[in-house]
Amino acid sequence: MRLPSWRRRTFTAFGANQTASNGDTVYIQNDATEYVQFEISTVGAARAPFAHSSATNEGQKIVCDPGSTAGDCDADAGDGGVTVALKIDNDSGAGAIFIRQTLPGTPATAASVDTITVVVAQVPTKLTVTPVKKSINAGQGSATAGSTELDIRLTDENGKGIANKQLTVVSTHALLSGATGRTKTVGNDAVELLAFSSPDAPGVLAGTISTSADPTANDDDGAGYAQVILTGGGSPGVSVITVRIGTVSASASVVLHGSVAKIGAVAEQSAIEVGGKTFIVVTATDSAACRCGPSCASA
């Protein structure tokens, strides 16, 4: 039986224990081929009702038999037993949920209890997006395209990194890539950076990347990091790179310059005394009037 798309397909076998997060839907399965009574009790701040509308006692109790009808309290009619869905509240705190299971038609049957340990999932709150270089060669014509790293960090409301979250990255001009085998030093940790969805250069204009996991249990927070490689796509201009997860987003800009077409110099002071000093500001621009960075020296 195919479960409805809104249900998270996470099953726990009869008598097994597991860990889940707030907002998860967990399935409790009993092998019985007759009516089963499921009852919830909790400790800590964990909260969850049974998902089906036939649940009573504010969703904390349900009696269900093996069924094959769509919408029945048996969430998986093909498993040979009775499976009920339990929805952990989105704002549930940490704690434990106990699901007591008995067979009402067989009073002598001992009750069994499944345990779900609820951990509070981190909520993505802030993204930072920082290019290592502010300007790279666009690679126009026969010029060699420049590249730079784009460092990304995803954190929660407490500034802690969030691991294993998929980010969407979109660029207006610069191409995106990023292979495996790269690391980032965070304190004493060597954090493994995951690959971009199109890992090979020169890359694409949009894709996804997942955030890093913390490799150790020390105080160095290595979770939540990602890195994408930006490469000039052949056209000078300003590339805006936007990173997004859900409703949280952040952007950064990188100048894609062509070969140097004009050099200008302006003195800070038009006259100085003998032995005095002043600064001269030199600006190099390409044919599109994009200001070049240090890479202009080799353009």
Write the layout of secondary structure elements.
Blueprint: E1 11-12, E2 18-21, E3 25-30, E4 36-44, E5 61-64, E6 82-87, E7 95-102, E8 112-119, E9 126-131, E10 135-137, E11 147-155, E12 166-171, E13 175-177, E14 182-186, E15 189-193, E16 206-210, E17 225-231, E18 237-245, E19 248-257, E20 262-267, E21 280-285
Parallel strand pairs: 1-3, 2-8, 10-19
Antiparallel strand pairs: 3-6, 4-5, 4-7, 7-8, 9-11, 11-17, 12-16, 12-18, 13-17, 14-15, 18-19, 20-21
Protein architecture, described:
This protein is mainly beta and 299 residues long. The chain has 3 domains: 11-119, Immunoglobulin-like (Sandwich), CATH 2.60.40; 126-257, Immunoglobulin-like (Sandwich); 262-298, no CATH class. The protein is built from no helices and 21 strands. It has strands spanning 11-12, 18-21, 25-30, 36-44, 61-64, 82-87, 95-102, 112-119, 126-131, 135-137, 147-155, 166-171, 175-177, 182-186, 189-193, 206-210, 225-231, 237-245, 248-257, 262-267, 280-285. Strand 18 and strand 19 (248-257) form a beta hairpin.
CATH superfamily of the largest domain: Immunoglobulins
User: Secondary-structure element sequence?
Assistant: EEEEEEEEEEEEEEEEEEEEE
The strand line-up of the biggest sheet is: 2-8-7-4-5
CATH class category name of the largest domain: Mainly Beta
Short description:
This protein has strands spanning 11-12, 18-21, 25-30, 36-44, 61-64, 82-87, 95-102, 112-119, 126-131, 135-137, 147-155, 166-171, 175-177, 182-186, 189-193, 206-210, 225-231, 237-245, 248-257, 262-267, 280-285.
Supply database-style keywords.
21 strands; Immunoglobulin-like; 299 residues; 5-stranded mixed β-sheet; mainly beta; disordered N terminus; single chain
